[in-house]
Automatic annotation (TrEMBL):
Class in the EC hierarchy, top level: transferase
GO molecular function annotation: quercetin 3-O-glucosyltransferase activity; quercetin 7-O-glucosyltransferase activity
Protein name as it appears in the record: Glycosyltransferase
Entries under PANTHER family matching the protein: GLUCOSYL/GLUCURONOSYL TRANSFERASES, GLYCOSYLTRANSFERASE
Keywords per UniProt: Glycosyltransferase, Transferase
Gene3D superfamilies, per the entry: Glycogen Phosphorylase B
EC number(s) recorded for this UniProt protein: 2.4.1.-
SUPFAM superfamilies listed in its UniProt record: UDP-Glycosyltransferase/glycogen phosphorylase (SSF53756)
Pfam families named among the record's database cross-references: UDPGT
Domain of life: Eukaryota
InterPro entries tied to this protein: UDP_glucos_trans, UDP_glycos_trans_CS
Similarity comment text for this entry: Belongs to the UDP-glycosyltransferase family.
Length: 486
């Protein structure tokens, strides 16, 4: 059936890195499977990497892919060290390109591929200028913040923390002192559980504090805020965010909702594509098949975390000394000053495990052989572990990871948090606690219970299920409103 003049068409623009792309691409697929036209817009570099790493892009009739330059020279590497450079370039150099593209797609009649004009923009919340851009061309814009709700709430509380005198910390303070300026977390959130740049701030004018505070507050200018979470996980944070941003959708975990929709609609191509920007090593799944239940420690620190050589050695020997089987994802750029060679891969005795460069993480976490997950506590990884009922040993580094790891250990009680203490003895001790005896059984039961609660939230009638359908209906209403305005 050809689209009519009220057909909704959403353009989704993720931040050009693995984490945001993961969940925003899942949202794009979900909306397209649900009958909305969707254009997923990436930077040229991200789109090329996605095409090279994936067996194929998803063949969904109502989903298409486009790309624009990020404004940086083509020969400049796009790695973790240039994360801020890419963001600044997109906000400055690519803004006019995006403006022209949106205006053309908004005003055009049906394009050659049958897509109607766009009626809504969903932009990563790290691009506050795009909210203004959409407003300039009278296009409804929703902001998508891809970290956890608890971290988003902490960012929104930066002005209150400054007013209370709890920021900046100053030197030599007790990092275990409980923070009072984040309502709902007064009983357990310590200074050390706040993002790492909070600690480094020397004054209220600290550039990172001001940037994060401004970016977070800007979400209130959009038509709504999308969070990849479930209320059963973060009800208090979602409640407080809604007090400032009333139209807030808590509709995650998106990867679990997408899996459910694919299954219900018998999407046979689901396993042939991925949102990974790295080539996945699927041979590790065959190795896992040979292991006994709950016998493997899975280790992965995501797409941007880097380790010093000292941190690498402490983690390595702690894992080895635990005596447990290990599957370790070690990116080529992960250890500072240490080349990723066959020698590193062979450093782990073959009988004790494997070191690989990238892995299909959801499938690994779902495997019966995995007993715990040593993680950087990135939000996508945390959600994937929760859904599969896998306990976590948290080694957080930056942004939302510090708060996420605190929730893992103190609120959900599905793991342990070893932030700020990184030595082989503690690694060994905590791995044993996660994998052996009564403590391991307790963590696994808590993880299974939490997984059941989250899965209920995405099932028919659950809170995330309802929130997702509310989002769809609101996008449809925006589409009708667009036609009435034009």
């Amino acid at each position: 059936m050809a689209p009519n003049k009220h057909t909704p068409h959403v353009l989704i623009f993720p931040y050009p890195s693995q984490g945001p792309l993961n969940c925003m691409m899942r949202l794009a697929e979900l909306l397209a499977i649900s009958g909305l036209h969707v254009t997923l817009l990436n930077t040229n570099d991200t789109h090329l990497r996605l095409c090279l790493s994936s067996a194929s892009l998803p063949a969904i009739p109502l989903l298409r892919f486009k790309s624009i330059p990020d404004g940086l020279p083509e020969d400049r590497p796009r790695d973790a060290s240039l994360l801020r450079d890419v963001a600044e370039s997109l906000n400055k150099n690519s803004r006019l390109l995006l403006y022209d593209l949106l205006l053309a797609m908004k005003n055009d009649e049906y394009s050659s591929d049958g897509f109607p004009p766009i009626t809504c923009l969903i932009s990563d919340g790290f691009f506050p200028s795009f909210v203004d851009l959409a407003e300039d061309i009278r296009l409804p814009c929703l902001s998508f913040r891809t970290p956890s709700a608890c971290s988003m709430w902490a960012y929104l509380c930066i002005p209150k923390l400054l007013e209370n005198g709890e920021l900046p910390f100053g030197e030599g303070v007790d990092l275990d002192e409980v923070v009072q300026g984040v309502p709902g977390m007064e009983g357990f959130l310590r200074r050390r559980d706040l993002p790492e740049f909070f600690r480094g701030a020397k004054s209220a004018d600290d550039p990172q504090l001001k940037f994060m505070s401004t970016v977070s507050a800007y979400s209130s200018k959009a038509k709504g805020l999308i969070l990849n979470t479930a209320e059963v996980l973060e009800s208090t944070s979602v409640h407080h965010i809604r007090a400032q941003i009333p139209v807030t959708y808590a509709l995650g975990p998106l990867h679990a909702i997408l899996d459910s929709y694919r299954s219900a609609r018998s999407c046979t191509d689901a396993s042939s594509h991925t949102s990974s920007l790295w080539q996945e090593d699927t041979e590790c799944l065959k190795w896992l098949d040979l292991q006994t239940d709950n016998s493997v420690v899975y280790v992965s620190f995501g797409s941007f975390t880097t380790l010093t050589q000292e941190e690498f050695h402490e983690l390595f020997f702690g894992l080895i000394n635990s005596g447990h089987k290990i599957l370790w994802v070690l990116r080529p750029d992960m250890v500072q000053g240490l080349a990723w060679t066959d020698e590193i891969k062979r450093a782990l005795p073959e009988e004790q495990g494997r070191i690989i460069s990238w892995t299909p993480q959801q499938k690994v976490l779902a495997h019966r052989a995995v007993g715990c997950f040593v993680t950087h506590s990135g939000w996508n990884s945390t959600l994937e572990s929760i859904v599969e009922g896998v306990p976590m040993l948290c080694w957080p580094f930056f942004l939302d990871q510090q708060i996420n790891s605190r929730f893992v250990s103190e609120i959900w009680r599905v793991g342990l948090d070893m932030k700020d203490i990184r030595n082989r003895d503690l690694v060994e001790k905590m791995v044993r606690e996660m994998m052996e005896g009564e403590s391991a059984a307790r963590f696994r039961k808590s993880a299974r219970d939490l997984a059941d609660a989250v899965k209920e939230s995405i099932s028919d009638g659950g809170s995330s299920f309802r929130e997702f359908h509310r989002l769809i209906e609101d996008i449809k209403s925006m589409s009708i409103g667009q036609q009435c305005d034009s």
